[in-house]
Amino acid sequence: MAWDQWIRRGVATAMLLPVVVATAHSQSAASGIIGTVRDSVGHPIDAVVVEARDGTTGYVQRAATNSTGRYILLGLPLGGPYVVSARRVGYIRSDRPGITLTIGAREIVDLVLRVVPVRLTELNVRADAEAGRESRIGGSTRIAREQIDALPIPDRNFSGLASLSPLAGNQLSLGGQRWTSTDLRIDGAQSRNLLRAGEANGGPAAISLEAVREFEVNTAVFDVGQGRQGGGQIAAVTRAGANSPEARLYTGFRNEHLAASTDFQGRSRAARTAQTLQTALSLGGPLVRDRAHYFLAYERQDASEPLTTGDVSTAEAQVASGIARDSLVRLLDVLTRQYGTDPAVSQTGQLGRRSVSQTLFARVDWQLAAAHRATVRLTASDWVSPLSGGVDQAIALREARSGFSSREAQLLSTLTSHLGERTLNEVQIAFGTSRRALIPESPGVPRGFVQVRSLLPNGTTGNSTIQFGGNRLAPDESREWQLQLMNRLTSQRGSVLWTLGTDNSLVATRTLIAEAQGGLFVFPSLAALEARQPNRFTRTVPLSGASPVTRQRVLELGAYGQVEWQVTDRITWTNGMRWDATAFLDAPAANAAIDSVFQVRTARAPRDLAQLQPRTQLVWRLQHDARDIIRVGAGAFTAQLPYYAGHNQLLYTGSTLADIDLRGTAVPTPDFARYRAAPLAVPGLPAGAVLSPAYVNVAGAVRAPRTWKGSATWWHRIGDGTTVTLGVQASRMRDGYAYVDRNLRNVPAFVLTAEGNRAVWVPANTIPAATGVTDVRNASQHPAYARVLALESGARAEQVAVTGEVAFRLGDRAQGTMGYAWSRARDNSSYGCCLARTTTTFTPVVDDPRALGQAWGVSDFDARHRLTGALSVRAPFKLAITARYVGTTGRPFSLVVDGDINGDEANGNDRAFLFDPGNPTTPADVAASMRRVLANPNNLARRYIASHLGQVSGRNTITTPFTNRVDARIARQFRARGSGALRSAELIIDVYNVGNLLNRRWGAQYLLPVGISSQNPVVNRVPLLRVVGFDPATQRYRYSVNESAGVLPKGGDPYQVQIGVRIAR
Description:
Layout: H1 3-20, E1 32-39, E2 49-54, E3 60-64, E4 70-74, E5 79-87, E6 94-101, E7 106-108, E8 111-113, E9 140-143, H2 145-150, E10 182-186, E11 189-190, E12 212-218, E13 232-238, E14 246-255, E15 275-288, E16 292-304, E17 307-309, H3 315-321, H4 325-338, E18 349-351, E19 354-369, E20 372-385, E21 395-396, E22 402-418, E23 423-440, E24 447-455, E25 461-469, E26 476-493, E27 496-513, E28 520-523, H5 526-530, E29 536-542, E30 550-566, E31 571-584, H6 592-598, E32 607-621, E33 628-638, H7 644-651, E34 657-663, H8 672-677, E35 696-699, E36 706-718, E37 722-741, E38 750-752, E39 758-760, E40 788-810, E41 814-827, H9 838-841, E42 857-858, E43 865-875, E44 879-888, E45 892-898, H10 924-935, H11 942-947, E46 958-959, E47 963-975, E48 984-992, H12 994-998, E49 1005-1006, E50 1010-1013, E51 1016-1018, E52 1021-1031, E53 1036-1041, E54 1050-1051, E55 1056-1064
Parallel strand pairs: 1-7, 1-8, 10-13, 21-25, 24-28, 35-40, 45-52
Antiparallel strand pairs: 1-4, 2-3, 2-5, 5-6, 9-12, 10-11, 12-13, 14-15, 14-55, 15-16, 16-19, 17-18, 19-20, 20-22, 22-23, 23-26, 24-25, 26-27, 27-30, 28-29, 29-34, 30-31, 31-32, 32-33, 33-36, 36-37, 37-40, 38-39, 40-41, 41-42, 41-43, 43-44, 44-47, 45-46, 47-48, 48-55, 49-54, 50-51, 52-53
């Protein structure tokens, strides 16, 4: 079927669903109202009609009690307030007003019917934020609409508030697991970048903040409806219209004049001009009163924010960049004179750029009949952002960068049906599309790397690599089409609540990624650049002449069943089983030669059809008023494989692309001026040369990552306004995916005796003495091939955490939360996505990249201590003050070698040997540099190095300092008088990074090197040594020492003020 037909049919199906299934089953949701009805002496009453009415929309749902007096009202739209009433002939009607439903909550409303008209005793109604959420306490953090409206969020993305979860980590990782194992959902439908993982939207937000009703961050929720996750889930629900019309307009503005006078690198406001304008409009109301309602939201963010690269304007900036000003000036002069770099365009420093993001949201809720409710919801986003694509080096010229654009849309149809008085069904179908692209600044031009060693203003010697020319990842265009079908049936039978469900997805992708196809020239020094004498040229060449495109389809199936047994009035026991299956439906063409040599099946696509996940949970309310609650749960979870794994296999078959790797005298003399004018002139295979060995990906014994998780929580309420939560959580991930080189020789060619006998896989006589640059082809078991990478399931991870949280409310004047988590996350591979070659690059090793046991240690996602807080205060003069705080242990990092000393092709993944300057066998120049490294008081790694001299450094054994961040808001609302259209206007002042406002030294972060893409934004590796040669006689590498290793620059955003206005009618 053609792609456009596939799209049209998917959209038509989603739009027609409410009509097709209007007489069929429907909906579900964990949220609702449950309880019992008893008489005045405590006996249960059956056949009582219980009704819940939403006063804002007129929505009504009814149920009847069973023989035990229990009733259940599930699938109720979130919000309210609801009035719950019970009536039966012969009894006085009983009402309970003011019930508000939140995400994942089941409000317990017990009612009493009396046969004589007596005054009812007031019942104790819990007013805490966790009311009805007993099954989630300690495993979930809820962010309410009031917090979303009140807290400052710089980019207005709801997921930014996920940082308030004590177990949230960097890059949306949860519970110490890989960020790729975090599931993201909006209204129950998956909202995920399926190719690369992470959020579906490429821009600041998937939907307008005005459209989000509330969301939660789940790290230990054992409902079997939660699937395709390892660390946890971020789930949001959207707003719906009501009987009362409403309209809101928000606009916010900030620029450099509302920011700190200098940043952490000493740059003035004039050197960092920036401006952001945010505008959001929302409309909601009735189409037909009490029957149909709509809600619309549009948001636009227009940001002019410079990109900083190679800034040497101040002494601090030169140290941070690792290059002296005169060296950078010389490099730019050479590139302008000899390599065709445009002198009229700023290439380094503050590079101006303007990004525009737009989102659209539309939702219609329609009460089709008393038993059927339909919802149709549309989300769409568009983002254009120049110079935001990934690069290979921390300093990359403008010409070597790329712009990013993305466009996503999703249409979701939901039908909720009540099948009798005790059964509820919800069916959802969603169709989503996305298009993401990287547009290179210099199309078709090869990359150039220049290694520069220069004396920095602080007296140390800096090592840096500068990138110019082209971009490795661009051009790039990826398309996704996703069809989702979900159904959940819930039925109450006596004291047992039965749940059956299914969660399915069919995805098609079309991917063009011209990775490394433009070529790369490597220059070992500025002198070599000026002499046009690179020492290496590499290129991945399409054998068909055009960049190949991959197409794949992936089927995800899921089914689950759950039994929730109300053992007593105070004990609930839940048991369930979930089954998921993943099948990549398109296998690559078979390569018989590879199959024969390596005993693999190249025509096999990744597949895991046996993802069984048992789960259990016990909730014990120790008293009738639930002043103390204990929750214990355990179970298994499986996460999705990023679909990039299928792309890797379809593209790198061994017959689609050829790898060119030329060294020494075989390297062609570069002519960048010619390449810029005619990209086809870029060198390819030399005339008469033999086809280079192929780089091959195969699907080995790969399975979906499995995580076993357990959690125990005690929750205690103090009075009516304060709660305390203490918990412990542990998880163990197995079957994590990682690529393993099947062609790397089994026995080392030799060992480095001066470095603890670490292995080298290439023979010593193949390493050039002048450069020390290894060639992976010399490490192959079968020289006819280069790397043969198999996707295997050998990675594992563990995490244990102890958490505590206090939530308080002081009347109407103040409320807030404070949380703390101590956690320890360890793994043997932090690889998440995407290029197969980067598996070992991201996980530093001693010598053998296949021996993941060598890499076992602190995970890239470890945050040993984490503090979170949110506060809201009603101040004098009708001011509302809100703030959020996040304090966390810094990121862990490793000391590595800038080079490939073990010969596995991965540059920068070999952990550095810590040469002892007092050892007479240490070369004199290395010893002198190491003394300066150890004497530098600003070196964060100094203590570790001093205590481990003469050893290979460990993985992630050094940590950046603790960081603190406070964002605050001051708002004043002005209410309109009279009956005009304007209801209120609110003046809002946001201050981001309040600490820096109070003290210019506060609020900074210590920056690790920049990563290659948004999927890998930070490199947890800092070079200590650089390979400059090799001594074949002693079989030792010659090194220079990065004397600035461990001296991480202070960065991050200094304080910034934003002024906003919100108008409501």
